[in-house]
Specification:
The structure is a homodimer of 272-residue chains.
Chain A lengths: L5 H14 L7 H8 L3 H18 L3 E5 L5 E5 L4 H15 L5 E2 L3 E2 L2 H4 L2 H15 L6 E5 L4 H11 L3 E4 L10 E7 L6 E7 L8 E9 L3 H12 L3 E11 L9 E11 L4 E6 L1 H4 L1
Parallel strand pairs in A: 5-6, 5-9, 9-10, 10-11
Antiparallel strand pairs in A: 1-2, 3-4, 7-8, 11-12
Helix pairs in contact in A: 1-3, 4-6, 6-7
Chain lengths: 272, 272
Amino acid sequence: MQKIGKSERLIFITSTLVQNPMKLFSLTFFCDKLSCAKSTLSEDIDLISQIFEQTGQGKLETVSGAAGGVYYIPTMKKEDEIEFLNFLKNELQNPERIVSGGFVYINDIVFNPEVIKKAARIFVRLFLEKEIDYIATVEAKGIALASYVAQYFNKPLVVARNSSKFTEGSTVNISYISGTTGKIETMTMAKKAIKKGARVLFIDDFMRGGGTVRGMKDLLSEFESSLVGVGVLIATKDKKSVDVDYKSLLILEKLDAENKRITFSINPQVIS
Amino acid sequence: MQKIGKSERLIFITSTLVQNPMKLFSLTFFCDKLSCAKSTLSEDIDLISQIFEQTGQGKLETVSGAAGGVYYIPTMKKEDEIEFLNFLKNELQNPERIVSGGFVYINDIVFNPEVIKKAARIFVRLFLEKEIDYIATVEAKGIALASYVAQYFNKPLVVARNSSKFTEGSTVNISYISGTTGKIETMTMAKKAIKKGARVLFIDDFMRGGGTVRGMKDLLSEFESSLVGVGVLIATKDKKSVDVDYKSLLILEKLDAENKRITFSINPQVIS
């Protein structure tokens, strides 16, 4: 940059932080790039932080000390979360979503970037304190959502598969009972996928009885790693035998396929 | 916002545009939010545009007229693209990636947000002129990459599956020969997934002979839609019988499993 004034600094800092969620940038990095004093930079960061808070575009967190700096936390304002969850609820209650077998068609939802970006921001808020090392999901419908959560946490995504693919080298496999199919299924993950002692957040699109979650927990224990949270877009009202902090954004209250009626509610735990 | 000066405007506009790639915001939207004149806003946008160009953080495009406005195109500087592709090449050439069967382990790469975000930005540049309506991929390894491309193009992602799942309602199925397995496989997509007459960009992690691409093309023709481009992370040197504009970022030059040597090159078509 040729002439670097306050305007140029604010544009560069805002764009850099927002494009790299949860990535810590040292003040020295910005001072060098922008040829400015740390005190000047601190004022800029305070201002950006204020505007973000006021407009609900997320938060800036500053870390003091030698290894300190600043990073961006991609969250939303509470009222924007509620507005989004109401939109999602209404969208899902469209009776045309009921497909044969009494299932709900949600592919367009779970692969729509506008929708899953916002859902991912809510999961950031819900699991921010968990010190997560990896985001995990099971193929295939949860991958796009989990990938946004991974981006926002700035952590790698690992994907368990339902059958061992020979392009992954040696794998760890476990069996579990799927709540959706009622059948025994296999979950498999490459041995190279996760380091020992990792803390993992599991993200998926849909949860019934929690069979997949228990499967994931068993799989992770083979990696000497632990499941520290579960975030799903939609859960049924079935009893979940899951002993981990889990949050669903929406709850499927009732699906009456015969009369083409389907009802969701917003999980009160999420917006309380 | 209480007091809205130039600094506040620049922070808000930068953050809003960057967080919503390819989404057109009318000047009126910003004028209303920021209580400023259009001429003032135009100056702000010009300045942001200049800083983005200088620092390689993407581009702003302005559209004039009544339906006009401004949007953000997430691209990178040429030298950053080349630096990234060299990094990726070196990362992939690690002999430990060679797994049994003479395959290459790339799961950590294709699910690493830092990597696929940058790859997605290159695909934005490569296919910007194609007037794309959907991004398509096939489960499962390409989903995260395709999901970033979809986010950056601000278009829905559609995912074809290798077996029909009963939760998707009626589906369209086609058979194709996979270059990776050499077997006849099935590709399936929900009937609701794509509207008629759509222009589709296919994104995947790996391409051998192009069987999957031909499969996708056949599948799309069932939706009276057309494949207008193919972007893959890695392609082998095998002859591709594919009659569509396709670009791979890297080329797998040689895999010598016995001597644990693996060589990639950067596709000259991409960086020319």
